[in-house]
Design a protein that fits this description.
Strand content: 25-35%
Largest sheet: 7 strands, mixed
Radius of gyration: 21 Å
Number of helices: 11
Order of helices and strands: EHEHHEHEHEEEHEHEHEHEHEHEE
Helix content: 25-40%
Structural class: alpha/beta
Number of strands: 14
Distance between the termini: 46 Å
Strand order of the largest sheet: 10-9-8-11-12-14-13
């Protein structure tokens, strides 16, 4: 299996925050590059090395602070990179006290436009659950199984459907959408979950993402699936902190809400979603690594949700819950 080597540039103080973002997206092995370590080594009178290679010395003195990690060189790995990139932007935008550095994400020996597009060679039509086939917009597919065909072009944003978190959400959506529902897609990315719900019979979808690029990408993907503009709306903003965005969703308008993000966002969101969905409404959340499952379940119970079902795919969990 081939891997891509990625590097996140940070300040010294930003290393821990960047590491948290990478861990939250299921990547558990990282290498830390901290200039302080080398400086402390050079100042240590008890160091055991008599000689250091000049090239290594030059490299160490000019290296940038940050973290290095690896993902598989396939559609799932690239989707993880895109998710990490979006989360890094969110954390940097929200951090008002410390200088965390640029938080730029680069892939070694690969131009960004290449790693953001070469994954398309791996992205072929594939089934999800019992009712859906995910089909990239550039691929041909002859429908044979009586499934709903969801055309998607994620652009440079999270949401091809190949990631375990997205699959778990779609499987729950096809289980709980029976027709005529109003749904809310929080952290919508490419809009894949909202579009899946509409294709499966939902009547209307509201979608929001912190990435402003999501607005146009969702509109393009809705058009690919022949979804009329009056069937959905999409906003850009931080629903956790933007009162204007919250107001657009408040009022128990929705029968169902989904959030395929990370545990650290799902937990505070679980206190907000009861204002969005009707009593007995369904809340589907995913993007939860196994180590954080209990934390999310505790938050859901605290905020009035009954856990209906949990699915696990590799190290990722998705939860279907109902507002009591």
């Amino acid at each position: 299996m081939d891997f891509l080597e990625a590097f996140v540039e940070t300040s010294e103080i930003g290393i821990e925050m960047a590491s948290g973002v990478v861990y939250a997206n299921g990547v558990t092995g990282i290498m830390v590059e901290d200039q302080r370590d080398f400086s402390e080594f050079m100042k240590d009178p008890n160091r055991q090395w008599d000689y250091i290679d000049d090239e290594l010395m030059k490299q160490k003195l000019t290296q940038k602070n940050g973290i290095t990690f690896f993902v598989t060189d396939n559609a799932s790995g690239i989707e993880t990179l895109n998710a990490i990139k979006a989360d890094l932007k969110r954390v940097k935008d929200e951090e008002k006290i410390f200088d965390v550095g640029s938080f730029n994400l680069t892939v070694k020996n690969v131009k960004e436009e290449d790693w953001a597009n070469n994954w398309k060679k791996y992205f072929k039509p594939f089934p999800v659950g019992d009712k859906v086939v995910i089909k990239p917009s550039w691929e041909e597919y002859e429908e044979k199984e009586g499934r709903v065909v969801l055309n998607i072009d994620p652009g440079h944003i999270f949401g091809t459907g190949s990631h375990e978190t997205t699959k778990g959400c779609i499987e729950f959506i096809e289980k709980f959408v029976s027709g005529g529902e109003r749904v809310a897609d929080i952290g919508c990315g490419s809009g894949i979950l909202a579009i899946a719900a509409l294709l499966l019979g939902a009547d209307f979808a509201s979608a929001v993402d912190i990435d402003p690029n999501a607005v146009e990408i969702v509109r393009q993907n809705a058009e690919l699936n022949c979804i009329k503009p009056e069937k959905y709306e999409v906003f850009a903003g931080d629903i956790l902190n933007d009162g204007d965005i919250q107001e657009k969703f408040n009022g128990k308008k929705y029968d169902m809400a989904f959030a395929n993000i990370v545990a650290d966002i799902v937990i505070p969101l679980s206190a907000m979603v009861p204002d969005f969905i009707r009593d007995k409404g369904i809340f589907i959340c995913s993007g939860i690594i196994s180590e954080r499952l209990n934390d999310v379940m505790e938050a859901l119970n605290k905020n009035g949700f009954e856990i209906l079902e949990i699915t696990r795919k590799k190290d990722w969990c998705a939860i279907a819950s109902r507002l009591k």
